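=== RUN LOG ===
request id: a7f3
mode: sequence -> structure
chains: 1
length: 134
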Amino acid sequence: MTGKRKSWPGENRICSTIPPRDSLGKKFSAGFAVAMPAELIFAPEVEQDLTEAYDWYEGRRPGLGEEFLSCVEACIQAICRNPEMHATVHADYRRGLVRRFPYSVFYEYPGDTVTVYCVFHNSRDPQKWRQRLA
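=== RESULT ===
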């Protein structure tokens, strides 16, 4: 397929620039905690979710799939920097919204690790992502 990016799928480039963290944060004398990036793990299904969405957007306009991946990457980087910024939506799972595209990133943050379970279109049946998270 023309215009298809060579590094996706197959390479895990999302959050590749964020190093894993050693601790939950560092305190300054003023008492403010500095957010440190969380370690990131992807469920195997996430690559399929992203590949399907990428292919759909690339089929609409060459380069749009790249823009989609960039927006998803920005969302995941924000989640890694501050995993507790999103409210829980189901059990202990949280949902981050992707800017510009109608997608959500569902993840879990039990401590110092962010586990991304799915990237779903917002108009999909909520039962589908709840089944994936169960």
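=== NOTES ===
The chain has a mean pLDDT of 81.
The domain at 33-133 is CATH 3.30.2310.20 (YaeB-like fold).
=== END ===
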